[in-house]
Amino acid sequence: MTPCPICYNQQMDPQLIRNFCIVAHVDHGKSTLADRLMEMTHMFPQGQHVDLYLDKMDLEKERGITIKAQSVRLKHTARDGREYVLNLIDTPGHVDFSYEVSRSLAACEGAVLLVDATQGVQAQTVANTHLADNAGLTIIPVINKIDMPNSDPDTVKEEIEQALGMDATGALEVSARAGTGVPELLEAIVEQVPAPRGDAAAPLRALIFDSSYDAYRGVVAFIRVVDGEVRPGMKLRLMATNFTAEVEEVGVISPDMTKVDVLGSGEVGYIITGVKDVSHMKVGDTITEEKRRADASLAGYRDPKPMVYAGLYPIDGDAYADLRDALDKLKLNDASLVFEPESSPALGFGFRCGFLGLLHMEIVQERLEREFGVSLLVTAPHVNYHVFLKNGTDKMINNPSEFPSFGDIDHIQEPFVQTTILTPSEFMGPVMELCQKRRGNLQNIHYISARTTEVVYEFALSQIIKDFFNALKSVSKGYATYDYEVTDYKTSDLVRVDILLAGSKVDALSMITYKDTAPFEGRKLVDKLKETINRQMFDVAIQAAIGGKIIARQTISAMRKDVTAKLYGGDVTRKNKLLQKQKKGKKRMKTIGKVDIPQEAFLSLLKID
């Protein structure tokens, strides 16, 4: 694809640069708007129409969501006759990928806040607006999908003012699909988004806001240059890791990777240094020149705090090293992923991984399998528990198998979250009923408009990480949305339920649950495991236990060959002798037999009603 003819061989005047991102709730049209902006700035050959160009991953196309923030450099001739460079960053909308949004905001001065004219303000609209406002960005409210039959821009403007406290009288009305209002949006970006501030003559300071790995060229770092300039041949120092490297290539995304001679103050682009070790190029690090170093690094990013933990194990035990290498490379592209080695008697060697949510966990699993060819077994997810012991010590534990004996525990605290739910008013009853079932504590009700209500509940995080999203969509016919933030750790009456297969404890199937519901959940899990695990050549007992007390049991009966089929009449002792021989064989098999645990057994933990 031929890039547009922007001059790439000299520094841009920072006054002619605009760095902005698009933020919105899921499915409000961010990626479609990015396509129209690229189309109207002539990024594609004339007559060519490209859908969702910046959603490059197969998973993004299949699921219809943005997972990775993507940047592109546009050219626009404004009303004043001058040619501007617009650096656009398209961001995800799902709550699990809010860390991607926060990193993108650090590379921008402005944000286009996109709101669906048919759905109005939603949970992530509110959350992303607060992120942009806290980052000090100029926010341009834009109402999208005005060409839809049920669009209601006036009500949406009212919701923006009520929910976000923002003046929406001048909000632009556009149709990203049809292109209506997009030229006016381009002018608004030029006029309202401030030019980047920085000192072109100062020592180089550039922020790594994203990165990826190329098998041939090593780490590709995507940077925002704040001060100075970066050119091929420069020797750089990464200020956090104190690692030095020489620049092989600098470039911009326009719309594909395009080599340039220099990236100056205020510009967004990429650098390639040939570094193969992914640990040297960390997202949030500051790059400076080795000979002429900057005095202080840039602010960078706060470390993401995982909300959900699960074990990742290779199905083939020999693939452990491949999994470790794949996780290292994936972390380069997904800075919110954390992991550390762990081992399980039942599953062998693997990694304990931390995720921002269940969707994030699913995406990581699929990317590891698709992009790196590693077949995985993923254990049931858990949250982080704060365990206080009777000897006065305490520890943070995210794996039930690591819990100390309950006789040694004084009390346990679990994370609580404040959850903001936006729902059409007609579904208020079913939504509140669902929240009460999940032990929710009502905090506030706010009527944003005649059609939309905001409900705030406090939940234990463990109550919403598994299937709350699907249940909420079900009771609201797909219309309700939610966002959450962790507020505090609080004491709860919790116990550990262990699962025993053929008398052996499977630590990967252990779970932490409330004492009053433990017998019910233990029975449900044992029943589901019986349906999931294949029959063996011997009887397999499935038991749920709290400490030494069995609270539920099921038995998977053995597969049996009819050893008496060849007998036709005769003495019954011959038949009994064959049956006894078979019974002894089954007993011996049971002592040495191994029960294979399929992935569905771990997924069954997610499906307990």
How would you portray this structure in words?
- This protein has an eight-stranded antiparallel β-sheet, covered by helices on one side. It has a six-stranded mixed β-sheet with strand order 2-3-1-4-5-6, with helices on both faces.
- It has five domains: 14-192, P-loop containing nucleotide triphosphate hydrolases (Rossmann fold); 205-289, Elongation Factor Tu (Ef-tu), domain 3; 308-381, Elongation Factor G (Translational Gtpase), domain 3 (Alpha-Beta Plaits, 2-Layer Sandwich), CATH 3.30.70.870; 386-492, Alpha-Beta Plaits (2-Layer Sandwich), CATH 3.30.70; 499-607, Elongation factor 4, C-terminal domain (Alpha-Beta Plaits, 2-Layer Sandwich), CATH 3.30.70.2570.
- The longest helix has 21 residues, at 572-592.
- It contains 13 helices and 29 strands.
- The protein has 609 residues and is an alpha+beta fold.
- A hairpin with a 3-residue loop joins strand 16 (338-344) and strand 17.
- 43% of the residues are buried.
- The radius of gyration is 29 Å and the shape is globular.
- Helix 7 crosses helix 8 (358-372).
- It is 24% helix and 32% strand.
Q: What would CATH call the architecture of the largest domain?
A: 3-Layer(aba) Sandwich
Largest sheet: 8 strands, antiparallel
Unreliable segments of 5+ consecutive residues: 1-8, 588-593
Shape assignment: globular
Strand content: 25-35%
User: Class by helix and strand content?
Assistant: alpha+beta
| CATH fold call of the largest domain | Rossmann fold
CATH uppermost class of the largest domain? Alpha Beta
Mean pLDDT: 80
Helix content: 10-25%
The rounded distance between the terminal residues' Cα atoms is 51 Å
What is the number of independent domains? Answer: 5
- CATH superfamily of the largest domain, called what? P-loop containing nucleotide triphosphate hydrolases
- What is the overall number of helices? 13
Rg calculated over all Cα atoms: 29 Å
Report strand order across the widest sheet. Answer: 10-9-14-7-8-13-11-12
Q: What is the number of E strands?
A: 29
